[in-house]
Amino acid sequence: MMNTETHERAPGDDEPIHTREQLLGELLVYTTGFVIAIVLTAISFWAANTTLLWGPGVPLGLAVLAIAQMGVHLVFFIHITTGADNTNNVLALAFGVLIVMVVLIGSLVIMTDLSANMMPPASGGMAPMHMQQP
User: Fold this and answer.
1) How far apart are CA 61 and CA 56, in angstroms?
2) What are the residue ranges spanned by the domains of the chain?
3) According to the model, what pLDDT value does residue 36 have?
């Protein structure tokens, strides 16, 4: 005989929301995250298009705002916190960041090395076709 009352869930899944207070609490968390993300996005567009900021500082400011945006997404939407039950999630995130950084830095090192070794010397030698004068 089959029991229709059991609902299987994956490990780590939360219980379904049953009460109005739980639903409103979840809605408040998502709404807060959404509003903060919209504000950070608006500030980023303002910072990129204004002349009130020091020009060379704009890329650094945009990088800081991008990191803040990632933090908002991780906390409010993906629900990665510092709780004991999220240790595996934080480790998986850290490992993913490590892999991305290794690929990014490795690619930059390889491209820099290729550029230094493959380009003809600036003095004398053969110039690329598009730089030769007729």
Assistant:
1) 10
2) 19-79, 83-117
3) 97
Please list, residue by residue across 102-124, b when 16 or more beta carbons sit within 10 angstroms of its beta carbon and e when fewer do.
Answer: eeeeeeeeeeeeeeeeeeeeeee
DSSP assignment of 27-91 equals HHHHHHHHHHHHHHHHHHHHHHH-SSS-GGGHHHHHHHHHHHHHHHIIIIIS---SSGGGHHHHH
Report which DSSP code applies to 120.
P
Q: What is the band of 73 on the pLDDT scale with cuts at 50, 70, 90?
A: very high
Distance CA(51)–CA(66), nearest Å, equals 20
Q: What string of DSSP letters covers 76-106?
A: IIS---SSGGGHHHHHHHHHHHHHHHHHHHH
36 contacts 74 by C-beta, under 8 angstroms: no
Mean pLDDT of the chain: 82
pLDDT at 12: 53
| Tokens found for residue 133 | 């004068």
pLDDT at site 101: 95
Q: What is the pLDDT of residue 16?
A: 67
